[in-house]
Write a structure and sequence with these properties.
Oligomer: single chain
CATH architecture: 3-Layer(aba) Sandwich
CATH class: Alpha Beta
CATH superfamily: DNA polymerase III subunit chi
Number of domains: 1
Structural class: alpha/beta
Shape: globular
Strand order of the largest sheet: 3-4-2-5-6-1-7
Helix content: 25-40%
Number of helices: 3
Radius of gyration: 14 Å
Largest sheet: 7 strands, parallel
Distance between the termini: 32 Å
C-alpha cells in the first residue's frame, strides 16, 4: 500500500519542497513532482536552479526529451510518466492514480487555503485506509 507523508506548517511551501527534494536527491532517489498549476511548477523549477547556491539539483519538466533520464521531473500530468516510486504532490487535490506510487509526499504551507485543501486530502486518504505520517515543519523554524 502507498505510504503517505504529510509535511505541514511550511513557512514557504516551495522552499520546503525543494529541501525535501534535495534530501531525496542526495540519497539518489528519483522522484516526480505533480504540479498542475504552472505558476507553482515554475516557482519550484526556478528555486531548484538557484538552491543550494553552491550546487545543482538536476531536474526537468515532464515534457522534456530528457525526462526519462533525469532523476527529478516536474509535471502537470501523471498519465505518461514511467516513474512510480516517489510522488511529491503540489496540487490542492489528491493526485490521480496516486496509489501506483510507493510513496506520496504532501507539502502543506501555513496559508488557510493550503491548510483546508490539505485537510481534505488527509480525510480522503484516511477514509480509504491509508496510514499517514505527519511531520510539523514549524518545529524546524
Amino acid at each position: 500500500m502507498t505510504q503517505i507523508f504529510f509535511y505541514h506548517n511550511a513557512a514557504d511551501r516551495i522552499s520546503a519542497t525543494a529541501a525535501l527534494i534535495s534530501k531525496a536527491f542526495a540519497q539518489k532517489k528519483a522522484l516526480l513532482v505533480y504540479a498542475p498549476d504552472s505558476e507553482v511548477a515554475s516557482n519550484l523549477d526556478r528555486h531548484l536552479w538557484m538552491h543550494p547556491p553552491t550546487g545543482f539539483i538536476p531536474h526537468v519538466r515532464g515534457d522534456s526529451p530528457l525526462a526519462a533520464e533525469t532523476p527529478i521531473v516536474i509535471t502537470d500530468t501523471l498519465d505518461t510518466t514511467p516513474q512510480n516510486e516517489r510522488l511529491f504532490n503540489l496540487s490542492a487535490d489528491v493526485p490521480p492514480a496516486f496509489s501506483r506510487f510507493t510513496s506520496v509526499i504532501e507539502v502543506v504551507g501555513r496559508n488557510e487555503d493550503e491548510r483546508l485543501a490539505g485537510r481534505k486530502r488527509v480525510k480522503f486518504y484516511k477514509d480509504r485506509g491509508y496510514e499517514i505520517k505527519f511531520f510539523d515543519l514549524a518545529e524546524k523554524d
